[in-house]
């Protein structure tokens, strides 16, 4: 466990770095009590991080199983440390503080607080947690620290499976440079659209991170038309892979890169076609205008979670459409959540390959291709097996969570509301049918926290941690 302790210790420095970056907010808004709270957070995070890291600093090489455990454990501990400012500075109950922190770092956006009543430094802390969590704490440290053995395994453990440049460190730095640039553009566009600077700053950060936290109690329900239209662009940008953004910047014509590949074509088809269908459905039911229909669809597809309408008043049909697209999620390699559209493309391809195998003529050579790339039978079988296993695990967790959640809510709560909020939490979306609030039971909050955590890590690292706790040793993880 020495490599795990060393890796977790390194990552637990992130809340301390966030605290250092947040102290200027206290100085700007003259919230010196908040500065003391942040200093406590910095000290606590640094001490725990060093206690874990220093004895294991000469640990052995990090293998895939170690990276999985580092990801699973560190995300939980970072969320616990991120809850300290809420609990001490905001006087919030520890469970609610932990819920808010985990929802922030996982990029979910479900909230049990009234953000407008929080001091500025806590509003900033919520937004910063989502902004950091949008790319991931591991990718953050990989971009800062010198190259180490096991960096590639850590990169893959945080649900990233595509490198932009040959080295992991260079890839992480490119991701952060694109991310920071887009964040500045998002903040500027919201400010030009009429948002006050403080609101534009927070919503620009959480929008490009597809997180969904806002500093208003009604999310985007009272936002102007211009702000909503600008937010559509920001959410869409956050849901597109960093690899695609990098190619769009480097390759001309840039539009070609945005539509190249089966996943990108599926994304734009679902985004535009689904928005039209939802608008027509809502118009027929007379429950929402075209702007809110399009806004909610884009928010669900991109897994952002900004809300421009009270979904508790929507009929079952439109809610089911949102629920299905939240399950699918955004594109792989983006800040979005869900199962990812790439995996649904692979599921479709696997069905097609199977049918071709059964229907091909004798002596006919079967060519297996994906996005123009020829695949061997072994490679195709490996991809199919991986995506099928993850999909089954994802659906199983969702089903079990829905069953348990029905016992955590009051009698009379509609089943569609339970399913909607569970899928929203596991896909790290943040849209709510009204189920998630301060009155939700402690068991309900803990359950949603568990599925947010599992969904952000895409199940596998959590299963590795569970196997360790059950079997008492680290299981081997391949591929």
Automatic annotation (TrEMBL):
<feature type="transmembrane region" description="Helical">
    <location>
        <begin position="386"/>
        <end position="405"/>
    </location>
</feature>
<feature type="transmembrane region" description="Helical">
    <location>
        <begin position="66"/>
        <end position="88"/>
    </location>
</feature>
<keyword id="KW-0812">Transmembrane</keyword>
<feature type="transmembrane region" description="Helical">
    <location>
        <begin position="225"/>
        <end position="246"/>
    </location>
</feature>
<comment type="similarity">
    <text>Belongs to the TrkH potassium transport family.</text>
</comment>
<feature type="transmembrane region" description="Helical">
    <location>
        <begin position="319"/>
        <end position="339"/>
    </location>
</feature>
<keyword id="KW-1003">Cell membrane</keyword>
<dbReference type="InterPro" id="IPR003445">
    <property type="entry name" value="Cat_transpt"/>
</dbReference>
<feature type="transmembrane region" description="Helical">
    <location>
        <begin position="128"/>
        <end position="145"/>
    </location>
</feature>
<keyword id="KW-0813">Transport</keyword>
<feature type="transmembrane region" description="Helical">
    <location>
        <begin position="446"/>
        <end position="470"/>
    </location>
</feature>
<keyword id="KW-0406">Ion transport</keyword>
<feature type="transmembrane region" description="Helical">
    <location>
        <begin position="174"/>
        <end position="193"/>
    </location>
</feature>
<feature type="transmembrane region" description="Helical">
    <location>
        <begin position="32"/>
        <end position="54"/>
    </location>
</feature>
<feature type="transmembrane region" description="Helical">
    <location>
        <begin position="266"/>
        <end position="285"/>
    </location>
</feature>
<protein>
    <submittedName>
        <fullName>Trk-type K+ transport system, membrane component</fullName>
    </submittedName>
</protein>
<keyword id="KW-0472">Membrane</keyword>
<dbReference type="Pfam" id="PF02386">
    <property type="entry name" value="TrkH"/>
</dbReference>
<keyword id="KW-1133">Transmembrane helix</keyword>
């Amino acid at each position: 466990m020495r490599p795990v302790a060393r890796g977790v210790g390194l990552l637990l420095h992130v809340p301390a770095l966030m605290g250092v970056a947040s102290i200027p907010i206290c100085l700007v808004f003259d919230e010196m009590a908040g500065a003391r709270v942040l200093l406590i957070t910095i000290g606590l995070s640094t001490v725990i991080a060093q206690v874990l890291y220093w004895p294991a600093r000469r640990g052995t090489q990090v293998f895939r199983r170690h990276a999985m455990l580092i990801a699973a454990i560190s995300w939980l501990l970072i969320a616990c440390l991120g809850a300290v400012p809420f609990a001490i500075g905001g006087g919030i109950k520890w469970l609610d503080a932990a819920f808010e922190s985990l929802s922030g770092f996982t990029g979910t956006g479900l909230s049990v607080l009234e953000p407008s009543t929080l001091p500025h430094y806590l509003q900033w802390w919520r937004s910063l947690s989502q902004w950091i969590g949008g790319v991931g704490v591991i990718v953050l440290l990989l971009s800062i620290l010198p190259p180490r053995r096991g960096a590639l395994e850590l990169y893959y453990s945080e649900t990233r499976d595509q490198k932009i440049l040959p080295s992991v460190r260079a890839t992480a730095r490119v991701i952060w440079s694109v991310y920071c640039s887009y964040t500045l553009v998002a903040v500027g566009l919201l400010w030009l659209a009429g948002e006050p600077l403080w609101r534009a700053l927070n919503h620009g950060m959480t929008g490009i991170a597809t997180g969904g936290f806002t500093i208003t109690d009604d999310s985007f329900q009272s936002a102007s038309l211009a702000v909503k239209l600008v937010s559509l662009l920001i959410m869409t940008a956050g849901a597109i892979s960093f690899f695609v953004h990098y190619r769009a910047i480097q390759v001309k014509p840039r539009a070609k890169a945005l539509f190249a590949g089966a996943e990108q074509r599926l994304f734009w088809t679902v985004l535009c076609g689904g928005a039209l269908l939802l608008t027509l459905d809502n118009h027929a039911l007379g429950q929402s205008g075209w702007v809110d229909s399009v806004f909610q669809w884009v928010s669900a597809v991109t897994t952002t979670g900004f809300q421009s309408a009270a979904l508790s008043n929507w009929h079952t049909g439109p809610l089911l459409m949102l629920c299905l697209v939240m399950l699918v999620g955004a594109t792989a390699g983006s800040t979005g959540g869900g199962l990812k559209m790439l995996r649904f493309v692979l599921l479709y391809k696997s069905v097609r390959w199977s049918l071709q195998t059964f229907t091909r003529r004798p002596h006919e050579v079967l060519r297996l291709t994906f996005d123009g790339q020829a695949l061997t039978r072994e490679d195709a079988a490996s991809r199919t097996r991986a995506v099928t296993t993850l999909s089954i695990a994802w659906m199983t967790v969702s089903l079990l969570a829905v069953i348990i959640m029905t016992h955590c809510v009051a009698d009379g709560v509609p089943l569609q509301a339970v399913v909607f909020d569970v899928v929203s939490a596991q896909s790290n979306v943040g849209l709510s049918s009204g189920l998630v609030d301060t009155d939700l039971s402690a068991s309900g909050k803990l359950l949603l926290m568990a599925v947010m955590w599992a969904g952000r890590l895409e199940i596998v690292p959590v299963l590795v941690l569970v196997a360790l706790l059950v079997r008492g040793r680290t299981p081997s993880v391949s591929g």
